[in-house]
Amino acid sequence: MEVELEEYVGKILRDIRKRGIEAVREYSERFDGYSGDFRVSEEEFEEAVESVPEGDREVILRTVERLWEYHERQKPKEELFIKNGSLYGLIYRPIRRIGIYVPGGKPLPSTLMMVGVPARIAGVKEMAVTTPPKDGKVNPYVLYVAQLLGIDEVYKLGGVQAIGAMAYGVGMKKVDKIFGPGNRFVNEAKRQVFGVVGIDGLAGPSEIAVIADGSAEGEYVLADLLSQLEHGRESRAWLLTTSRELAEYCSRDGVEVVLCGTLEECAEKANEIAPEHLEIITERPMELVELIENAGAVYLGPYTPVPAADYFLGVNHVLPTGGAARFGGVLKVRDFVKPVSLAMVGREEFLRERELGIRLAEVEGMELHRRSMEVRR
Amino acid sequence: MEVELEEYVGKILRDIRKRGIEAVREYSERFDGYSGDFRVSEEEFEEAVESVPEGDREVILRTVERLWEYHERQKPKEELFIKNGSLYGLIYRPIRRIGIYVPGGKPLPSTLMMVGVPARIAGVKEMAVTTPPKDGKVNPYVLYVAQLLGIDEVYKLGGVQAIGAMAYGVGMKKVDKIFGPGNRFVNEAKRQVFGVVGIDGLAGPSEIAVIADGSAEGEYVLADLLSQLEHGRESRAWLLTTSRELAEYCSRDGVEVVLCGTLEECAEKANEIAPEHLEIITERPMELVELIENAGAVYLGPYTPVPAADYFLGVNHVLPTGGAARFGGVLKVRDFVKPVSLAMVGREEFLRERELGIRLAEVEGMELHRRSMEVRR
């Protein structure tokens, strides 16, 4: 099945690379039932934006403000230092041009906020948004968010053909890195174009784990567990608890309940799962944080439910899934910049220390590396 | 050709996933001509380490110290803040277990230093090193570096089978992320296991671009250009210069010379190339830095040749190649840790602001997300 998906997506991508816009048009017609211009026009923008009610604009504006305030603190500064007359360190440069995929199924204006805000703060100059059209149109909320973030390049393109178009520069300028979640076809396409362009990570079905003790309000815990199952049939929800009563209260279809002897056991179980989201609703949640190694996000106490983080807290909701929290983390401003290694070595330091490099080049059999160090006076 | 490589590597990986250690043994015999135990024994360690001359141990020790001092400054600290009675921010957790691939062709002890030092500083607890054996043995310098870094898990495994063994946990415990350069088979294997495990990036042939004006010493510039061509036939070297004399001096096989009208033009050309290494050897090199957007590393002045950075400066020599500097950067301590999003929201703040989340959940049609926010009192 996995191999089939790989081959299926690979074939479409190769076809797009070979036949360009013609292939994109064909797939777009076949999969999205769409055959008009891809780029959303100024008129369409205006029309859509006007259709968003005043109150909803206000909600989006306030949410973007909260996201902005949170992410602004993440902007990296130069990390330079001088030692023995030499300058060393890292400087940061924004990625020039990115692509953002906004899934179609449920219109997700929040996805565009979560990716667009840190990108803007990082200083990314060009952003292209692709999203599958519905009845030939892009969701007006998505267009309103785009406008708010100063993005005027939005394309009615979904699925594998959207990823191919962004990665190979078909019907648009090629992007440098692709962000945003999608279904398994979109994810497989992102995986396959990795290397040609950068990608933010691979997003799978949503996951929640809740560590809770007897002090937790059953109603809250259950509501949180069920909320993440709403994303789709493949989503998962775990309750890790020391309370038999809570375990029973939350036992139902889709919820995986693990009864543990101690909260420390719950924490170790969470580390094994490496869930996208981990809520800790216990008497003293802070005391468990140091035991958590693998989780995309950790939310403490009864007033930090995952949906609050998904929407309005200001934190980023793009998180590693499917165990990827073992090696990856939450989306942040640094994902939109590149660290560049900078060095300017002083003459004295170079001449004094080069014997180290010369010997290592000898050991590795790199004659011309040695020469480059030896030739200097 | 690319498709063939993909299929060839894919077939080997699927076979390893299916047949496990038996398949790894077969490929190891076929490609490395090796059929003994994979893990390097204590005796082999001791024997090899003793064979490294005293003087060379000292060279390696001093180099590791320089790397340690440089990378120690990169260790990220918690980034937490309190706002409206709520706690937000990022905390960092080391990756539990990593795999490091050390290529065989030319024995590269420096690769292991470059990956192992930041990993140790990050706090990674378990490291497994794989490297193809030569005449059934691992290079003693590689084993000495391993010992110095406290790594006792070294495997005589090369190529696709090494990547497969680390990613799927065959003949060893599965790793969480794989680091280190390799040939095109190793790179394709890393690309294909991405998602199952994390990877550090895809390493291609070495590249150097030099921006130089008439003030640059021709002999230095030429030696630096040629040094990177030594890595292999696919390596590339560009000279971007305003000096006709220098252009002529450096014109020879393998060096791509671009004569520009101004240094600003040289900088823009460098951004188009997005080279792994960029040297700036001009009268006032610092004045060009702000124009550079795409480069893995920027080395300024006549005493910062790439080979010095490759071996002894203390900076990291694992850098993006093949244009990947458009979206990726130098290896650093942060590549060995994961940012975990942490939040603990206050009751007042939650109750005051939840209307934003509730409305957005409505817009996106997420009924159970709304319920999780509404249920709280």
UniProtKB/TrEMBL annotation, chains A, B:
Pfam family, one: Histidinol_dh
GO CC list: cytoplasm
SUPFAM superfamilies per UniProt: ALDH-like
Cofactor: Zn(2+)
Protein name: Histidinol dehydrogenase
Entries under CDD domains matching the protein: Histidinol_dh
Origin species: Thermococcus celer Vu 13 = JCM 8558
Recorded GO MF terms: histidinol dehydrogenase activity; metal ion binding; NAD binding
Source domain of life: Archaea
